From TrEMBL:
This is asparagine synthase (glutamine-hydrolyzing). Keywords: Amino-acid biosynthesis, Asparagine biosynthesis, ATP-binding, Glutamine amidotransferase, Nucleotide-binding. Pfam families: Asn_synthase (PF00733), GATase_7 (PF13537). It catalyses: L-aspartate + L-glutamine + ATP + H2O = L-asparagine + L-glutamate + AMP + diphosphate + H(+). It comes from Micromonospora saelicesensis. Residues 2-214 form the Glutamine amidotransferase type-2 domain. Pathway: Amino-acid biosynthesis; L-asparagine biosynthesis; L-asparagine from L-aspartate (L-Gln route): step 1/1. Its EC number is 6.3.5.4. InterPro entries: Asn_synth_AEB, Asn_synthase, ASN_synthetase/amidase, AsnB_N, Asparagine_synth, GATase_2_dom, Ntn_hydrolases_N, Rossmann-like_a/b/a_fold. Belongs to the asparagine synthetase family.
């Protein structure tokens, strides 16, 4: 896990080394163990390193192979790198390191851009063909690793974080009105390639972009599950459960590949509990597990220690409870905002940020349970989609998921920021209209798995863990698990209140008390119920001079929210004032 950055010139000029160098401090937390830089011709690359595989200097980046004429910077982990290395060795390649980075270089030389189809893992990389001055950018199938881009006169810059691009300079920081519409309507999700800033874009997941020396650019989408039953044989419920659990066992085992210990973020829910159970089943002993809890607020509990403690005792893990008091909370909110590459409303961000701070003092790699709800229909907005006609799916989805419909948005955004069309509904309609996805629920799960998941929970976990140099691995987002879940009949996923096939498959592996418990979330009551210093900070941000000059929101709407900070909720129960406040807090934090 690392931070990468660079510049590719398209106009014959040398890269701006000072600008690229300015990226490094903004990437430092992603790679606290070292840094590297390289420049040749029109390309400059920088790298911050977190040592996980091949701890020696032989694994340092940027990695250059003069014999093959290639250079690369890479963020992530290729879990099957040993198998690929063996295959490449048999084909005649020699290796100077034991790193997965070097495997990317050799794999690209042998298979070209199709090498990504052989990678099992999470990755974002920038690879340069030295002879042709061709730049290849690639991102993993589920977008677990980020890659941001900023075009400028005669050049392209790229980095693991948006703030790194801002540090380099010369970025258009005007707000993107379409992205703002998505943020306010599509549950704060801004789909790729957009970000909230007009001058910064992100490479979509499962995409390889090839940019040639003359500036021509070609994108290839190399993976897209179908979300139907066409590619799988008819199976009984028991067979589906067996296949899902077999895939999860493989996914968990793959994510133990490291030259350092691997722990687990244990929330006490089924998903993280299953990861602990499968590791114990595979012979892991003394597994380090970590849970976090907050002070209660407005009568809402701030922890789920009962369930995480139960799992820790049952599997005899080396468990650590992390209790967060009120004095520590407000500073942590601002630290979490500073760690965001994009504004992220979920209060989970604060939990993951604090949890990562504590965990990183003991360990550098963890497995985490993100993704199960999106791929296996665990959320409460999925059952209403079950009996909807496919032709009515778009409207049904918007009704249960959108924070605000387009007409209502006109009463919230200032007139100069309102679009004359419903960009979010149009985006959903285009996604639902693509081939595949047999039923309305299939279409909703496809959208959530391939878009919402990437630009909400996955991005959240990456940003918050990497703020402390902690690598998080997510076995539920192994692409083979996602493919299997996409093909699973919707009724099996919706059973037992959601994730039915997973709950049934987990019987006898995870204690029933955890399987049958009510669905929980990362509880952070002090954000759901704004008061005290945090409410003051939100109020100050929304009434500060930058906010007034930006003029995003209608004055009457702002006054209504500030007069009753916890009265307005979005469709899915989020605090409406926090959504506005978080956006302004983030914009002011990055200096926009």
């Amino acid at each position: 896990m690392c931070g990468i950055g660079g510049e590719f010139r398209l106009d014959g000029a040398p890269p701006d080394l000072a600008a690229v160098e300015r990226m490094l401090p903004a990437l430092a937390s992603r790679g606290p163990d070292g840094e590297g830089r390289w420049q040749q011709g029109p390309v400059a690359l920088v790298h911050r390193r977190l040592r996980i595989i091949d701890l020696s200097d032989a694994g340092a980046q940027p990695m250059v192979d003069p014999e093959l004429g290639l250079a690369v910077v890479f963020n992530g982990c290729i879990y099957n790198y040993r198998e690929l290395r063996d295959e490449l060795t048999t084909a005649g390649y020699s290796f100077r390191s034991t790193s997965d980075t070097e495997v990317i270089l050799k794999a690209y030389h042998r298979w070209g851009t199709a090498c990504v189809e052989r990678f099992y893992g999470m990755f974002a990389f920038a690879l340069v063909e030295l002879a042709t001055h061709t730049l290849v950018l690639a991102r993993d199938r589920l977008g677990i690793k980020p890659l941001y881009l900023a075009d400028g006169p005669g050049r392209v810059r790229f980095a693991s974080t948006l703030p790194a691009l801002l540090a380099a300079g010369d970025v258009d920081t005007d707000l993107d009105p379409v992205a703002l519409h998505h943020y306010m309507s599509f549950h704060s999700v801004v789909p790729p390639p957009r970000t909230i800033l007009a001058g910064v874009r992100k490479l979509p997941p499962a995409t390889v972009r090839v940019i040639t020396a003359d500036g021509r650019s070609t994108d290839t989408t190399y993976w897209r599950p179908e979300f139907n039953r066409a590619a799988v044989p008819a199976m009984s419920a028991d067979e589906w459960q067996e296949r899902l659990m077999a895939a999860m066992r493989t996914a968990v085992r793959r994510r133990m590949v490291a030259d350092v210990p691997v722990g687990v973020l244990l929330s006490g829910g089924l998903d993280s509990s299953l990861i602990v159970a499968l590791l114990a089943e595979q012979g892991q002993t003394g597994l380090a597990t970590f849970s976090i809890g907050f002070e209660a607020a407005a009568g809402e509990s701030g922890d789920e220690f009962h369930y995480s403690d139960l799992i820790a005792r049952h599997f005899d893990t080396d468990h650590q409870q992390i209790r967060i008091g009120g004095k520590r909370f407000v500073p942590a909110v601002h630290q979490a905002i500073a760690a965001m590459s994009e504004p992220m409303v979920s209060h989970d961000c604060v939990a993951f940020h604090l949890l990562s701070e504590e965990v990183s003092q003991r360990i550098t790699v963890v497995q985490s349970g993100q993704g199960a709800d999106e791929i296996l229909a665990g959320y409460d907005w999925y059952p209403p989609m079950a009996n909807v006609a496919r032709a009515d799916a778009v409207e049904a989805y918007a009704r249960v998921f959108f924070d605000r419909r387009h007409d209502a948005l006109g009463g919230h955004l200032a007139p100069e920021w309102m679009l004359d069309h419903d960009a979010s509904l149009e985006f959903v309609a285009a996604h639902f209209g693509a081939p595949g996805a047999d039923t309305a629920l299939d279409a909703a799960l496809r959208l959530d798995s391939l878009v919402m998941l990437v630009d909400d929970p996955v991005k959240r976990v990456d940003n918050m863990t990497m703020a402390w140099g902690l690598e998080a691995r997510v076995p539920f987002l192994d692409h083979e698990v996602v493919e299997l879940a996409a093909a699973c009949p919707p009724a099996m996923k919706l059973a037992q209140g959601g994730k039915g096939v997973l709950k049934a498959a987990s019987r006898g592996i995870v204690p029933d008390e955890v399987i049958d418990r009510p669905k929980g979330y990362f509880p952070v009551p002090a954000i759901r119920h704004l008061s005290g210093p945090l409410l003051d900070d939100v109020r100050d941000a929304l009434t500060a001079r930058p906010a007034r000059e930006r003029g995003l929101f209608r004055k009457d709407y702002l006054e209504e929210l500030l007069d009753a900070p916890n009265a307005r909720r979005t469709t899915l129960g989020s605090n409406a004032l926090w959504q506005l406040g978080l956006l302004e807090l983030w914009l002011q934090r990055i200096g926009v």
